[in-house]
Structures are given as C-alpha cells and as structure tokens.
Amino acid sequence: MELRELAISNCDREPVHIPGCIQTFGALIATDKQIETITHVSSNIHDFVDVSPADALGQPLSILLSEEVIHNLRNIAGHPTIESQRERAGVYLLNQHTLDISLHRCGPYFLIELESVASAELDSQSAFTQVRMLLARLQEETATPALLQMAVRDLQRVTEFDRVMAYQFLPDGAGEVVAEAMMDDLDPYLGLRYPASDIPQQVRGIALRMPIRAIADIDAPTADLIAADSTADPLDLTLTHVRAVSPIHLEYLANMGVQSSMNVAIIVRRKLWGLFAFHHKNVKLLSPNYRAICDLFGQLFSLKFQLAVEEERFNTRKRTTSAISQVVKKLTSSDRFTQTVQALGEQLCSMLSAQGLAVIAKQEVQTYGDVPTHDVIRELVHQVQTHPSPDLVPLENLSQLDRLHTTQLGKTAGALCLGISPNDEVFVIFFRQEIIYEVRWAGSPEKEIVEGANGPRLRPRSSFAEYREQIAGQCKPWSVLETEAALELRTGLMQLAISQGEVQQQEWLRQRRQQDLLIAELNHRVKNILALIRSISRQTRHSTTSIEEYTLLLDRRIAALAHAHDLVAGHGLEWPSLHNLLTTELRPYLAEAECRVSLSGPEVGLKANFVPMFALVVHELITNSAKYGALSIPTGKVNVHWQEQDGGLAIYWQESDGPPVFPPKRKGFGRTLIERAIPFEFEGEATLRFPRTGVQVNFWLPAHLILLQRDQPEVSATPITAVQNEEEPDLAPGHVLIVEDNMLLALEMENLLESLGFSDIDTAPRVKQAIRLLDQEKYILGILDINLKEENSFEIAEELIKRRIPFLFTTGYNSKFTLPEALVTVPMLKKPIDEDQLNLTIHQLLA
Fold this sequence. Notes:
Largest sheet: 7 strands, antiparallel
Shape: globular
C-alpha cells in the first residue's frame, strides 16, 4: 500500500466514536443495564451534581440523581428505539443545578448525558415558533437549489452563526459547498470543493446515526471518562452530544479560523447526501432545545428535499422513457442486430450525450461516431465480462485501465458499457470524449503526510484560499439519471437481440421487465406519499402549540402513512383490501380491549392511489375516538360497516357507549381532513355528525375507487383479533393482564410477551379498568407497574391474590414505595425490563 493510501486509511480508521473523553459543556454517566449501578463517570461530574467521580463510581445511581429522574429514565429505557436514538428525559433541578438530561443504550451500558441549562433557555415556545416559521417557508420552494439556499439563509438568521453552508457529497467522496449564507466580513466558500479525506468515512457513518453534531469551543479542555473497572472497553459515544472531538479535526477548524461549529445531516434515500455546516469565529453552543429543533428541522428538510429530488428525477425519467420508447419502436429484426443498432447510432448517442457507439455480437463489431480502435473495444468487452455487474459498467477514465493503450483511444476518454447478454458476448458501448475543466478547491487537496500515533496520517491543510486545479483525461461523469436511462434502453435492445437469435429467450427477461414497471410505479407513488408528508407537516404545525405535541402528532401521522404504504406494497399495487387497511390502522389503538371494535361488509379493494389519504382519514377518526370518544373508556364501542350503494361504496363509522358527545368548538386539521379530503380529491362524500350517543361518520366512495370481490364471502361483524403468523411456534394458552400507564412501555411489554409465546394479552392503564377486565376475563398471569400516575396497583394485586392468579411487579423506582406485608414476596423487576429475566420469572410463577 502506498504511503498516501495508508495515511488516508489511517484517517478513516481513527476511532472517533471511542475518544475516552467528552466536551465539558456536559457531563456523562454510564450505568449497568438495570440503570442501577454507576459504571463510568466523566471527570467533570462534580460541576453538575456536586459529587466527585471517586464517590460516584460503583455506587447506586441514586447518589447522583433523584428517584423521580431515575424512574423517568427507566421508563424511557423501555422504548424500543432506545438503542438507535438518544432520548431527552426533560429538564430537572438537582442540587441547585438546572440540568437537561438524556439517555440511550449502548451494548451493556446506559449512557446518561447532563447539560446545564440557563433559565433564559427554558422557554421552548420561542424556539418552537422559529421552527414553525422555517418549515412554513420551506413549502414555498420545490426546486432543490432554491430549497438549499433558503434553508441556509433561514438557519443562519435563526441560529446567528457567522456562516451556514449546504455541503454536498459528490460521487467520488469529495464535497462541494452548494449554498451559503454568511456575515458580510467573511470570504465566500460557495462553489469550493473539499477532498474526501476532510470528512472520513467513519464520521459520515456516525452522521447517519446521530444527525446533529455540536462543537462548542475548539480550545476548551476535555473531561476524561473514568471507569469503575479499569479493564473495561472504552464507551462508544456515537449517539452522545458531548462526544469529544478528534484532535485532527480541531486542528482543521483552527486552520479555518473557526472557534465553534455544528453540523446537521441531510439524508436522502437513507444515505448521507450532505450536511448543513455551521461555523462561528467565537465560542457558541445552542441550547438543548434549539439543537433539538435544528435536528428536527434537518429531518423534515431531508423529507422535503427528497421529495424535490424525486420529483425532478421522476420528470426527467419520464421524458427519457418516452424518448427511449420512440427509439425502441424503430428497432426491427430485418437486419442483423449490430447493423440495426448502428443505424440508430445518432439518436442513441444523443439520448445519452455520447459521441460514439460500438455494437458487439459474437466478435462482430459495428461502430458509429468517434470511437477508439477495435482492439480497445474488444479489450473493453473482455474486462467488462469479468466485472461483478456486467449489465452496466460506467467508466470515466479509460487511460487508467490495464492493457488499454492511450494512443489507441483517440479522442475517447470514457465509456458506458451495456451487457446485453455478457455470456453470449453481446454488448453495446457508448463513448464520451475528454473534457478539460477546472475545479475550485478550498486550499490544495494534496495534504502533507505526517507521522501520527497510529502511523502515517494526513495533516489538515493550513490554507483554505481558493486553489484551481485543471482536470484532464476524463469524460463528463455518467449521471444517475443517464445510467437509469441506459438500463431501460438495455431492456429494449435485449428484446431485439432475442428476436434476432443473438440471445436465447429466457423467462427472467419477462420478469425483469415487469419488475422495472412495478418499480417505476412504486417510485411515483412514493413521490405522492412524500407530498402528503409535506402537507401533514404544514397542517400539524398550525394545530399544535408545543414542540413536544408537534413531534408526537407528526410522528403518528407519518406512521399511519407508513402502514398504508406497507399495505399497498404487500397486497398488490392496485387494490389493497379495505378490511386489511382498517384492521392495520385500528390494531395499535386497541391494546386495552380489542373486542370493542367490529368490522362488517363485502370484500372490497381500494384503488392504491386513494389508500394513503384514506389511511390518514381513518387515523384521525381513531385518534379522536381514543382521546375523546368511544375508545377513550373501556365500555365504548366502534362499529364500522360498509355496503354497495348508488353505484359506489358507503362506509358507516358509528361510536356508542362512550362519553357524552358535544360538537367541538374548534375545527382543527383532523376534522378538516375527515370532512374534506375525500370530496375534494376523489369526488366522494363525507358527513361528520356529533349526536350525544356517539360520533357518526358516513363516507361514500365512487366506483372508480373500489373493486368489489363478488366471489369472496362477506366479512362478518366479528371483533378484530391479532393476526397470527403461521410460522410462529405454538403459543402458551391463557390470557395475560398488563397494567401499565405508559403506552409505549405497554406496547413494548406486549412485544416481549409475544416473543415468549403468549398471544392473548390485555392492557389497562388504570386500576378501575384493570378490575373491570378481571371481571370479564380469566387470566393466568398479571404484570403490574406499581406506579400509575396518581395511584398505585396494590388494589389490583390484592384482587389477583384473591383469584389465585400469579403476578409480578415492575417499577422504575428504587425505594419510593413500601410494599404492604402481603405483597413483599411478589417478584419485582426493575425497568428497563430484561427479556431473559422476565422469561425466568414468568416460568417460576407459572410452575
């Protein structure tokens, strides 16, 4: 390995995720998986909780944090996403310190971050108003360059950083500043490129998992992490905000004249498209609230930006596909394959911006335009045949390939090779000529190699003055859209080759064509779903008053869309089942008593482009019912019936036995969606009424939205039950009762029990509802959270003892409750619940 390659490899392998220290704007505590014993602390812990590291290590967490905080952390620890994302627990006053506290899990440890919050930063309303304004402005633009410029301008104004840039990663790994907003006294970086080594691969991987990164002060000292066990592996700090910064990166920022910075990831198609980079000449750190809002803005911007990218891509693809279909129609089988393709060389080259074309079929070569010698073409065919993906191979610098002589290339610099049938030696190769152009770098991209702690490394450059480099010997890069167009063209050429006997007919050809059509249709529908997300984010913004409420509602509405998308993808693209859609959307809201909802009507399919909007309408009905209507109390019922009517389909939603109903005084987004979405977009009808006995909603769908399955039996009016997987093992008989007031923790406990083999599970959040369930059903096991907000579960425990039903307690507290004498022998599991320990305890109880 050359020295430069070794230096780049060493930079890419720098263990930035385990620095062994943190930035001092926060402190860090690590505990065991029970969130009970302190295993690590940062050396600055005394500045936040008035306890020294020596006095904290190996001790119970209660020596540092209050019972209330620990209880809330244990509840958060039960969230299913706790290992993949950092969760904020809230702001607490501890020993005269106002602290923002967060939690996530990493392997066997829970990592708790503490950050001091000034009283002026406690009001989140101002920050929430700012993000609402930012999101509102995003709706004004649809073109990607304008979106990026608007985002950096607004972010720079709101955050007051000296400079905010949108930084795009290019196909070769380098980056380019594509939008910029800055103070007037700074030199512009717009249009400058940065080598790939400026942001090593492992840093890019971390940005996908932790989309926001703040560096408060490059000159601030760090705080070491101290472990109770000196032989323990270093903590992985990937998901922390306080992770210390690589010394190489600090040197890099210092050379740029940057004292503090922040990055927010732009993620498109689950890949790192680029970053919003924030630079400041002085010390600067946004409050936890503002950082959370910048993080949320980054996620929502990424959705909006992906929508714009997909729309531009779809429109270009549509034009290209139309042009390709016109060319393919001209392909005839009257001549030999090579001659037919050669005759259309001008049109084919124009389509892919190529200057030459070669067609190869069983050693016969025909060419059009500017191409290299036949020896070069045959050598290309030989090399492409051994390529891992010979169907399509883009090459931008042929002079770098082995056994190709530059003197034989002529004007040619690059090629796009289509393997029509590599095994049959049938290829079409497009050629591009050399282009000479300049690249503007931020400083010379050739970095000095120095010796580091782990061997050779690249030294950050000391100057970022513009450096112009002339690029020669390459062609214009083949874009993603061009390679996609080439693949579609390949399908048409393959059909021609088959008809002329150059390629053997194969069944997979038909299947591949069908797959391409389905993917194109699915991409179009994804675009429509993203457009819905844009609308949802805008409307949710107007109907909420806090960042917490906004995040929760937006998350739930997007989840409803995700369910609908799964339904379209999983049950055929055209006519997903109405019954399946209702079942999918209703099940998450029926943890307490699934038997309270019944569905009845003929088997009917819904047109796929209608499903996402109808799923949102159903989601709003369910949400309102769960908050205010029949599903908000145990006795309430919901009946959904549908039938043919007036040439279409009538759907009736009827709530009963719930609390008294009164017409709402305020008309929010949910009600607007229920009443207007179907009439406005799909020529249907919707009527919403509020009799005191229960909400009634009637829909009528026109015939073009439905497909009646007349040979299928009618869906009977039976309660919804959990769908069973035929491949699952036999499940344990008997019902289990969970008493838990936190919905996320209740759902997670249900998942744990299902993984252990239980299928019949009921959940109650309050004592009264649990007692009612005990009167209605026979249970073999109870799992009771002790603390139920304003009450406890001891009354339920006494009922279970009377009924001789074994049970166990769960709790997030250490010592807040003194158990009654009759309950001191009941097994108690501390949150977060360990699956193995739960399994063992249940087996002991049931034995």
